[in-house]
Amino acid sequence: MSRLHTENHLISRIGWLRAAVLGANDGIVSTASLIVGVAAANAAASNVLVAGIAGLVAGAMSMAAGEYVSVSSQSDTERADLDRERRELATQPSFERQELADIYVKRGVEPKLALQIADQLMAKDALGAHARDELGISEMTTARPIQAALASAAAFSVGAAMPLAMVLVSPAAWLAATVSVASLLFLAVLGAIGAKAGGANVLRATVRVTFWGALAMALTASIGAVVGTAI
């Protein structure tokens, strides 16, 4: 007797995981870089904090808007493809049946059986079958603009709040160093969590995100120091 079991595939996490990791990573890197750059220009701690808060708000809104526009474009494309497929199913059902069967044949199914499968799937949900097997659109991967925008804004805010918190607890003389070190630790943890959740190599992901974060902060600190000296 076979035992039924539920499989949890990592691909089901790709939508929210991408938005969450990208948002939090950007929140840490951009806000920490902004703070370090302003601090390197010899600004007062209060000014650094204001700049960091402004960066958090602006960054969260930018992430939300960018993600919404990007995913909306994907959603529009999916909707247009589905509308075209719906028309073709209404006007060319035989052609669409054969087209679906050919997809299964290419996957290794016998031609006769492929036609039977196509008939059965189209009898139940013709548009759903073509959306999934011809267009690659499914409930798991379909675009959700509002969800993606909110997730990105929230993740960015959480990430940005971490270096901002360091401004509040750090001595003014060590502000830039404290924010830099703490932010790199935050990035390393984020990279490890994202890799673990997505089933990727933890060490590679951690090194990658930490390296780029360190590079961003080093560049902004250099610019801040140059500007602060010049002014």
Notable features of this structure?
82% helix; mainly alpha; elongated; single chain; 0% strand; 231 residues; 7 helices
Into how many domains do the coordinates divide? 1
Oligomer kind = single chain
Strand count: 0
- Sketch the major β-sheet: none
GO molecular function: manganese ion transmembrane transporter activity
GO cellular component, one term: endomembrane system
GO biological process, one term: intracellular manganese ion homeostasis
Keywords: Membrane, Transmembrane, Transmembrane helix
Structure, described:
There is one protein chain. With 231 residues, this protein is an all-alpha fold. It has one domain (15-224). It is 82% helix and 0% strand. The protein contains 7 helices and no strands. The model is unreliable at 9-13 (pLDDT under 50). The chain crosses the membrane at residues 21-42, 48-69, 148-168, 174-197, 209-230. One of its GO terms (biological process) is intracellular manganese ion homeostasis. It is a multi-pass membrane protein. Keywords: Membrane, Transmembrane, Transmembrane helix.
